[in-house]
Amino acid sequence: MTAIVPEVIEMPTxxxxxxxxxxxxxxxxxxxxxxxxxxxxxxxxxNFFGDRSxxxxxxxxxFLQLYRNLxxxxxxxxxxxxxxxxxxxxxxxxxRRTRLKAVSxxxxxxxxxxxxxxxxxxxxxxKQLVQELPDAQRAVVTLRYQEDLDPSEICRIVxxxxxxxxxxxxxxxxxxxxxxxNRP
Amino acid sequence: xxxxxxxxxxxxxxxxxxxxQRINLDLPGLAGLADKATDVVDVTLDASMIRLAxxxxxxxxxxxxxxxxxxxxxxGIYVRSYEFSKEGEYDRSLADRLKSQLGATWKPLVTVRSKxxxxxxxxxxxxxxxxxxxxxxxAEPRELTVVNIVGDIDIDRLSKLEGEFGIPRITxxxxxE
Amino acid sequence: MNLENDPSTALETSLRRALRRxxxxxxxxxxVMQRIERDQAPARRPWWRAVAASLTLTALVGGGIAYQxxxxxxxxxxxxxxxxxxxxxxxxxxxxxxxxxxxxxxxND
Lengths: 184, 177, 109
Known about the structure:
The complex is a heterotrimer.
Chain A: H1 18-23, H2 27-49, H3 52-69, H4 76-98, H5 120-131, H6 135-146, H7 151-158, H8 162-180
Chain B: E1 4-7, H1 33-36, E2 39-46, H2 47-55, H3 62-71, E3 74-83, H4 94-99, E4 106-113, E5 119-127, E6 130-140, E7 143-151, H5 155-159
Antiparallel strand pairs in B: 1-4, 2-3, 3-7, 4-5, 5-6, 6-7
Chain C: H1 7-18, H2 28-40, H3 48-63, H4 69-108
Helix pairs in contact in C: 3-4
């Protein structure tokens, strides 16, 4: 009779996540976190303002703030929530302080190559119309359609009741539809 | 982090002497900072000391002549500057208490607020278009500087001292060259 | 029901496409790390503190030696002059800093 000796497989020790390493002061790990989340943060600001340099500035501010406050973040999920919340609130805050106007179509900049396959004119027009929405509606629409968040998640980020979020979404979509159809 | 800046553009002055205000730089809370500071600058020059200094500003040196002209209308120059080894060593409300001494003729010229760099308040005692007094309060996390200039002062000429007397120029990043 | 013809669905699909994430310009993470480094750098000591320190030293060195009245007045006058220069340098630096911040705000608009 042959004894079957179970094979002992040594599992490689999993590296702590970048988040945990960054919290312990690992700068490279923090840079990894930035790379992982930069598109999300930058796009929230870019879709809000339609101004790339301002979006970059705000995104940098947010990550600088993250660096200072990383010790308060408890998990990867909390980090994602924190980034969305801080970025959104910062965009609203900046708008209110500087009364930024919507970027004109000419200033919207070139579309990246991978988006040109869609309807570029519609996309640009939609972006511009979103940027013309009132602050709160703009934030809600951006979080809903950029980040695919539902109203219960959005309400925690923006800090308004969920019914208000739904109302903003509804009104925003109505306004966008009206403008796309060139109705007053 | 962004800066909040309020600016009043000020036309520079000529004309009539007017009595300017010296503020009390020995407020409770301010005077005691010397004990906590790692470095202190204390300049107290009244009119007689300024006149004495003017005699020693060389007439044949254009730069020193410029300074001599600049101080010719002054009755007092007072500076208190404290540097600390760590943050939180002074009460940030000191700036408001200093400003509360200023009378109705004082107006803010520039206010710079920054979370990471200096907060600067520049206030001028205005009589018509003339500046007859200046108060500058600059607060950093580990440094507090208060300047009170009493008498007719040309702010434009004051700012143009950059590059003279070995004064470094501020680069685009706000750092010394 | 053909959802493709539902106008709200079509609009939402378009919105998802129009608002999809984009990356910032290349090197963004490096720029953030550089900014963090600048932010964390210890505050530079103002250059005039060395000047102030030397004035104090001069005063201390001179105080222990007996001088004729004239020489004392010369020393006091030189010190007063140095103090005027120091005070104006400090004031000028703060005014220039404020002007610089004003200009940088203006150029970002």
